[in-house]
Amino acid sequence: MSWEVSLPGGKAGSFPESSEQAASQAEVVISALLEKRSALAADLVVAEDTVTCLRRQITAVSETLKTFGHLEPERDTMPAAVRHKRSKEGFRKGELTRRVLEKVRDAAEPVRPADVARTIMVECLMDQGDQKLTVAFQHKVHNVIRRQWQRGILERVGAENGWNARWRVAGW
Questions:
Q1: Short-list 117, 120, 119, CA closest to 142
Q2: pLDDT per residue over 111-160, tens digit each?
Q3: What Rg value do the Cα atoms of the chain yield, rounded?
Q4: CB atoms < 10 A from the CB of 96, how many?
Q5: Measured distance CA(91)–CA(58) in Å, rounded
Q6: Is this prediction's pTM over 0.90?
Q7: For a Cys-Cys bond, which of 58, 91, 150, 156 suits 96, CB 3.0-4.6 Å?
Q8: Which of 50, 45, 139 is nearest to 87 (CA)?
Q9: Which of 150, 146, 153, 142 is nearest to 120 (CA)?
C-alpha cells in the first residue's frame, strides 16, 4: 500500500511501504518544500522592498508639500509599522489573563487577587514600591478573575467577597 501526494509543479508521488523507497520519496518532498520556501522568501524580500520604496515616496511627497507650506493633518501622515499593542504594564492581548489563570491553577490552595497580582508583578519586575501602579494592577487582576468567574472558569471559595475573596479553578 502507498500514499498518494501532490507535489509543487504538478508532480505526483506516493509513499511506498519499504523504507528505502520511502526515504527517497521523502528526499523528493523535502527538496520540493525547500524550493517552495526559497520562492516564498524571495517574494517576501520583494514585498519588503516595495513597502520600503512606498514609504520613501510618501516621505518625499510629504517633504515637498512642506516646502510649499502645506502642513499635513494627522490623518494624512504615513502609517506606522504594524506592532502588537501592549497595555501600560507591558502585556500583550490575553497575556495577563493567561498569567492569572496559571497562578490560580498552580496554587496549592485558593488565592486572593492581591496575592496573584503581587506574584505577577514580581515575575515581570514591576515596581512594587509604586503604590498607584500596584493598586491599578490589583484592580486589573481582580477584573480578570471576575471575568473568568462569569465564564465559569474560576469559582469563589468561602463566604468572603470583594478583595478578600479566594479563588480557584472551577471543578478542582
A1: 117
A2: 999 999 999 999 888 888 889 989 999 999 999 999 999 999 999 998 88
A3: 28
A4: 21
A5: 32
A6: no
A7: 91
A8: 139
A9: 142
